[in-house]
Amino acid sequence: MVAKKNTDGEKFDLSWQQIVNFLDAAVFIYQDGLMVYLNQRTADLVHYQIDEIIGRPFDEFIHSDRQEELKERGAARQRGEDLPNRDLVQLVTREGEDRWVEISLDVIDYDGRNAVFGTALDVTDRVKAQQALAKSEALFRTLTETTPVAIFIHQGGKIVYANPAFSVITGYNREEILGKDFWDFIHEESRDLVKSRGQRRLDGASPPSGYAVQFVRKDGSSGWVELMGNPVEYQGAPAVLGTGVDISEQRAAEAEVLQSQKLESIGVLAGGIAHDFNNIVTVVLGGIAMARFHVENDPAAALRRLDAAEKAALQSRELTQQILTFSRGGAPVRKEIDLGPLLGDSTEFALSGANVECHYQIPDDLWSVEADQGQIRQVIYNLVINANQAMPAGGAIQVKVENIRLEEEQVSMLPAGPYLRFSVQDQGEGIAPQFLPKIFDPYFTTKEESSGLGLATSYSIIKRHQGALQVDSRQGIGTNVQVYLPATPTAKPEKNASQPSAKRGSGKVLLMDDEEIIIEVVAELLQTIGYQTETATDGKQALQLYQEALDAGSPFDVVIMDLTVPGGMGGAQALPKLRKIDPQARVIVSSGYCNDPVLSDYQKYGFDDVVVKPFTLDDLALVLEAVLAK
Predict the structure, then answer these.
(1) What is the Cα Rg of the chain in Å?
(2) d(Cα 257, Cα 205) in Å, to the nearest integer?
(3) In what order do the strands lie in the sheet with 113-122?
(4) Sequential DSSP letters for 2-15
(5) Do the Cβ atoms of 483 and 463 come closer than 8 Å?
(6) Which of 425, 421, 361, 422 is CA-nearest to residue 396?
């Protein structure tokens, strides 16, 4: 009995049976395997009345899987054996429903004999949640362990989980992977991209979640995966859950298709070059033959034929330069330029005599660009010519340029930053969809009057300027070509002074070239415009002649050196030795290898100027005049 005072100071009594009926826990006693006492909560658990349970076996309410076990343990407990007091037990209700309880049992004295006193808490909801979680985890593990998709978690830069597919793709076993630096698996050429995407995601941006990156296998080879990553919490700390689909075979197949397309393009290119050069050579040979025929009886006619042959030869130089711009050569010789005037002048030149209107949008506050003025002029000319040819019946061309700041991945393959964007838009019929994939192939054209080199050349030039060229064409509406060039948000550069005109000169020139015909012709050209000339066939002989002239007190005023001499010392090797002989020597580099970086950045390599073969007499005279004036 428990005695307690009420608010009026009177005593009232509560029996222990009344107390346990207030508890949320089930309380019961069983003796000799039979239920002898239980509170209301116990009866509620199994959906019976109290009097329906009294006298019935305790194990009757236990799930059949454990009836025998608990019956034996109960008997052993009554005998005084030491057994664990707590257990998780599955009960069965009147309706056959399962209920999970966390049960505690102990031996007590009941009516002078041992009995088992028990309490039980209903934990069905918790157990079912745990079972659902375990089932979900088992399903997740089954999926991750059997999927061909690589799944991994990296935390603090270290791999903390990787499924078997990750091992298959990378060639490492799981023990080698866990704890390894995540960046060890990413190819160095893809690391900046992955880091940039990750940082942008941390900054709150939403970059594309899936992208192709190169990875590194255990054997050192590389492959490609379609990578996805998302921030997660793993074991209470921030982490990244990543997936990777091996697309190496797909990439290889794409490369084979691309190679096939390249070979097709090379075939078209070779045929186009052969056609154009055959035409040029025909004019040259025909002009020379006719000049010989007329040289005695009609000198004026002979000169006209020679002029025609010279023009044809110059066309071959232009053709070679265009081919080089989409080959491995043609590196731009950069300087700061103002694109606005260049855009206007080049457009006007291209449209001379055309029956189209041109509307300009060229603001005064354009940023400057570091570019090869001649190559950019060629791009503008090509695009405007294409626009004009797209409108044989006339129309309007819109030429526009503007400053623009690009965000990351706003334009494919271009980093974020300041750019100049100029566009040429026509009102022609547009390009048919089936032709769009081929528009950058050399010699591909749908116009009879076009060479098919314009867009291919322009694309290559802009790519070498770290820019981009995009074509948007809609049939019946027209074509808009947009060009992006990296810009410097500064004031415009000063306008270049006009180029000096060629004239006769004087001085002593040392000419070095390994081709006898080149030596013969160029020496004669030099002598024609007033220069005294000596020749050498390689760098070693040139150094000897220069030293002898210096010792004799009659030094050379300028040296013209061929860049490359097969099997001998070329200009690049001879120049340092020449500088030791005479640090003030003025040296011009000359070559027909237009793809050599020395020609695009001759000052970096110690030369004073450059003349690229094939060159005209005017080209040679202007370079000599400029160098001797220094």
Answers:
(1) 45
(2) 35
(3) 34-38, 26-31, 113-122, 98-110, 86-92
(4) EEEE-TTS-EEEE-
(5) no
(6) 425
CB 307 within 8 A of CB 286: no
Tokens 């006007």 locate to: 348
CA distance 168 to 416: 36
Name the pairing type of β-strands 478-488 and 368-371.
antiparallel
Is residue 493 helix, strand or coil? coil
Alpha carbon distance 164, 152 (integer Å): 10
Mean pLDDT, the chain, rounded, equals 82
- Determine which of 188-197, 312-321, 607-616 has the lowest per-residue pLDDT on average: 312-321
What are the residues facing 405 on neighbouring strands? Answer: 418
Point out which residues pair with 388 in neighbouring strands.
none
* Per-residue DSSP letter, 552: T
Give the separation between CA 510 and CA 541, rounded to whole angstroms.
Answer: 11
- The rounded distance, in Å, linking the Cα atoms of 627 and 587 is 8
What are 288-303's pLDDT values in tens digits? 777 787 778 888 888 8
Tokens of 480: 């808009």
Among 263-272, 552-561, 590-599, the least confident range: 263-272
In 3D space, the residue among 550, 552, 559, 551 whose CA is nearest the CA of residue 531 turns out to be 559
pTM: 0.45
Band of residue 539 on the pLDDT scale cut at 50, 70, 90: very high
Backbone φ, ψ for residue 206 (5° rounding): -130, 70
Q: Up-side HSE of residue 95: CA atoms within 13 Å toward CB?
A: 5
Residues 6+ apart with CB under 8 A from 1: 13, 14, 15
Of residues 456, 537, 485, 13, the one with CA closest to residue 269: 456
Helix (H) or strand (E) holding 401: strand 395-406
Answer yes or no: are the C-beta atoms of 483 and 464 closer than 8 Å: no
Q: How far apart are CA 496 and CA 421, in angstroms?
A: 23
> At residue 4, does pLDDT exceed 50?
no
The two structure tokens encoding residue 63: 């799930």
Least Cα distance to 13 among 26, 28, 1 occurs for: 1
Q: 3-state DSSP call for residue 70?
A: helix
Structure tokens given for 250:
């797909």
Per-residue pLDDT tens for 217-270?
999 888 889 888 888 888 888 888 888 888 888 877 776 766 665 556 555 556
